[in-house]
Amino acid sequence: MSKTIAINAGSSSLKWQLYTMPEETVVAQGIVERIGLNDSIFTIKYGEGQKYEVIKDIENHEIAVNMLLEQLTELNIIDSFEEITGAGHRIVAGGEHFKESAIIDDEALKLIDDLAEFAPLHNPAEAQVIRVFQKVLPHTLNVGVFDTSFHTTMPAVNYLYSIPKEYYAKFSARKYGAHGTSHRYVSERAADMLGKPLAETKIITCHLGNGASITAVDGGKSVDTSMGFTPLAGLTMGTRSGDIDASILPYLMEKLNITDIKEMVNILNKESGLLGLSGISSDMRDLLSSDKEDAKLAIEIFADRVRKYIGSYVSVMNGVDAIVFTAGIGENSIEIREKIMEGLTWFGCEIDTEKNNVRGEERVISTDDSSVKILLIPTDEELMICRDVEALKK
Ligand code: ADP
Question: pTM for the full model?
Answer without folding.
Answer: 0.95
